[in-house]
Amino acid sequence: MSNHRQQAIEAIANTEYDLNQIDFKSKPLKELFGELVFNEDVQKARLPKPVFKALQKTIKQGVDLDPTIADAVASAMKDWALEHGATHYTHLFQPMTGLTAEKHDSFLSPTGTGSALAEFSGKELVKGEPDASSFPSGGIRATFEARGYTGWDPTSPAYLRETPNGATLVIPTVFVSWTGEALDKKTPLLKSMEALSSQALRILRLFGNEDAKKVFTTVGPEQEYFLIDKNFLFGRPDLLNCGRTLFGAKPPKGQELEDQYFGTIPERVIACMADCEAEMFKLGIPVKTRHNEVAPSQYEIAPIFEDSNLATDHNQLCMDVMRRTAEKYGLVCLLHEKPFAGINGSGKHNNWSMATDLGENLLNPGDNPHDNAQFLVFCVAVIRAVAKYPELLRVSVASAGNDHRLGANEAPPAIISIFLGDQLQDVMDQLERSDLKSTKQGGFMEVGVSVLPKLPRDAGDRNRTSPFAFTGNKFEFRAVGSSFSISGPNVVLNTIVAESLDYIATQLEVATGAGKPLNKAIQDLLPGILKESKKVVFNGDGYSAEWHKEAERRGLPNLKSTTDAIPVIVRKDTVELFSKYKVYSERELQSRYAIFSEKYVKEVTIEANMMVHMAKTMILPAALRYQAEVATAVNAAKAAGVDAGAQFDALKGLTAVIGRFQAATADLEKAGHHEGNGDPYHHAKYIKDAVIPRMADLRVLGDELETVVADDLWPLPTYREMLFIK
Ligand code: ADP
Ligand code: MG
Fold first, then answer.
1. N or C end of the chain: which has fewer CB within 10 A?
2. For the chain, how are helix, strand and coil distributed in percent, rounded to 5?
3. Model pLDDT, residue 29
4. Would you say the C-alpha torsion 315, 319, 320, 321 has a positive or negative sign?
5. How far apart are CA 436 and CA 370, in angstroms?
6. Residue-wise pLDDT tens digits, 217-232
7. DSSP string for 107-152
8. Largest CA distance in the chain
9. Among 241-255, 345-359, 659-673, whose mean pLDDT is lowest?
10. pLDDT in tens, 222-272
11. Pairing of strands 455-456, 86-92
12. CB 266 within 8 A of CB 725
């Protein structure tokens, strides 16, 4: 008789995987790119010229969509999709679950005379009405007025999703309630991009730039994830249902040898990665980089940056492709922030900048940032924004899953600070002293091997411990969780920077309006802003205990857990900020406050229930079987007349741990049976204070049992197996 765990290992040992599923020789990468996307080239080839031009203006310059072109676009999309084997279309939207949602409709309509016609009108392209009463709305919709509408987002191109028996035309959409409130993650993102664009353009106009018509925020999200053999999943109900292990003793070997980071990628994993990349290329996702990460079985994938709306859609799609493709190789892709305790968790580095529609990166310092006044203005605006609204950035990355990472010496602390690096720090110091003269140059690095070329040195070193780092020509927000939609963090970033740009533009407009030359106005304004904001700048080790003390001294907020952060969403200054830039109304913020609280309660409650279930039905039975074995051995030894003192002590010790384990199980079970009083935040606080500590207690005891119970009786795949059997 063997258990799940033994069956899993046997299955892995006996399976041959087909690793060569893609042939890049017969179909080169270049040809794959965008194959499934109704992109600019396809639009140009298939749309009447005026329609194409109007659509491109909307996409590239944010001009309002001309509603009369919808029919022509719909008809071209339909023909293109049908030629590519599509049978259905869907409005894809991003409800507050953080996932994507879709309902498929067939292109076919019966003619009434026995046959059917493929139809797709502009009306169907522009608007949909899924029955969406079951998505979280945080009180915005009662079920009796459950109407939610999807609306076409022409700035994110439609694409085809190929599935085993056919293909579906996927149309990215926003999702709003009957009363016009956003029920999704795309609507506020688009609004925040517009807010930033209008404020950034004011600054550009001051610098005499009349050509730029729109400023986009750009994002390149680096995505971390784990891949483990799928057979293990069936023996781990916690991984299967919660995405993370709730029990599991620390393995003898973890990540301490540092032999994994950038190491050679295992064959099956690289086959899977290549397949994912081919899929993503077809979908027009510009994936670029892949490598091993720090923890065993942990990896990273990164695309080339795009505008934030597209980058967000593509990151959602990327996670979806990875999950589905992993299965083809007998793997499972874990996107949870902390699938395994004791080794690194997974995050998402949100590389962020601003660029004009003509392609100018506004955070590019050039060779001499000190005389690049425009760069300084934009950069100082970001610093001011982070200094003024650190708690909003913090709450944008808050979740039960991410609580396991932030502040745990593997991910940035929960204290939001900015790393500028030597060069920029030096420029900012000079600027603050109103004494801008020089820029530290990077120079060259001596590699010490004469046959190698000299490498130009980056003027700024890396700092992995900072949550918000300037990395040459962009800022990198590193606290985002791996399973997150990047929408939330970018909505915050765009809005707080828009507010800063607004402030700066207003000051500069007043000064120049009164006849002050622009450069003088800038030199008069920025030092004061820097003085006020510099408390948030920290170039040292963000993991260190000294920094926690120093941050406290500086008065920087340290919102340690999700429940500490959630109230920020409905604070007066938050409501004022988001209402002013028309990104969220107060009601929308109230709904997010409720949804985040509920999500936290639900996630942790499911975990607690799962722990109790595993404790009672898997761990306790294994421990009792082993206890019986030991007891039998003690009795047998006694009967044989030998001294069984040590075995008796072992039995006593084991029995004591089992007893404590049972008590802790009962305790957690009782704590979990809590009925909220209807206030979701109140409930979340209860969960944080009463349930989470009991989960931690139970885990310690369960993990202790794992280290004493006979290996052949232990039912759960262990860390040493899940992380190292590849
Ligand atoms: P690393 O941070 O590992 O050195 P890179 O700097 O090359 O790697 O880029 C990391 C990510 O940042 C990539 O997704 C890249 O496309 C993105 N990135 C680069 N420039 C920008 C930019 N101007 N705006 C947003 N993201 C950017
Ligand atoms: Mg990076």
1. N
2. 50, 15, 35
3. 81
4. positive
5. 6
6. 999 999 999 999 999 9
7. SEEE-SSS-EEE---HHHHHEE----TTS--TTS--GGG--EEEEE
8. 105
9. 241-255
10. 999 999 999 999 999 999 999 999 999 998 877 777 777 767 778 899 999
11. unpaired
12. no
Q: How many CA atoms lie within 13 A of 158 on its CB side?
A: 27
Distance of CA 290 from the midpoint of ligand 1 (Å): 13
Q: How confident is the model at residue 77, as a pLDDT?
A: 96
- Burial of residue 675 (CB within 10 Å: 0-12, 13-18, 19+) is exposed
448: left (phi over 0), alpha (psi -120 to 50) or beta: left
Among 361, 474, 497, name the best residue to mutate to test ligand 1's pocket (greatest count of ligand atoms within 8 A of Cβ): 474
pLDDT at 444 over 70: no
Burial (CB < 10 A; 0-12, 13-18, 19+), residue 447, is exposed
CA angle 320/324/326 to nearest 5° reads: 115
The DSSP-derived string for 300-363 is EEEEPPEEHHHHHHHHHHHHHHHHHHHHHTTEEEE-SS-SSTTS---EEEEEEEEEETT--BTT
Q: Which amino acid is at 58?
A: T
Give the three-class secondary structure for 197: helix
Question: Residue 462 Cα, ligand 2 centroid: separation in angstroms?
Answer: 9
Asked if 484 and 348 count as a contact pair (C-beta separation under 8 A), the reply is yes
- pLDDT confidence bin for 28, thresholds 50/70/90: confident
Q: How far apart are the C-alpha atoms of 578 and 620, rounded to whole Å?
A: 51
What sign has the CA pseudo-torsion 366, 371, 373, 376? positive
Residues in the chain: 726
DSSP state of 295: S
- Segments in 555-644 forming alpha helices (H): 562-565, 572-580, 586-614, 620-640
DSSP for 490-538 reads: HHHHHHHHHHHHHHHHHHHHHHHHTT--HHHHHHHHHHHHHHHHGGGB-
| Ligand 1 nearest-atom number relative to CA 219 | 25
The structure tokens listed for 303 are 């695309």
**Percentage of the chain with pLDDT > 70?**
94
Query: What is the reported pLDDT for 445?
Result: 46
Ligand number nearest CA of 349 is 2
CA 562 centroid distance within chain: 16
413 vs 551: CA distance, rounded Å: 11
DSSP conformation class of 101: B
Question: Which residues have any ligand 1 atom within 6 Å of their CB?
Answer: 218-220, 222, 302-305, 351-353, 361, 471, 473-474
Among protein residues, the one with the nearest Cα to ligand 1's atom 17 is 220
Task: Give dist(CA 714, CA 695) in Å, integer.
Answer: 20
Confidence of residue 21 (pLDDT cuts 50, 70, 90): confident
Contacts of 53 (CB under 8 A, 6+ apart): none
Centre of ligand 2 to C-alpha 349, Å, is: 6
Neighbours of ion ligand 2 (CB under 5 A): 349
Token pair, residue 658, equals 């089992």
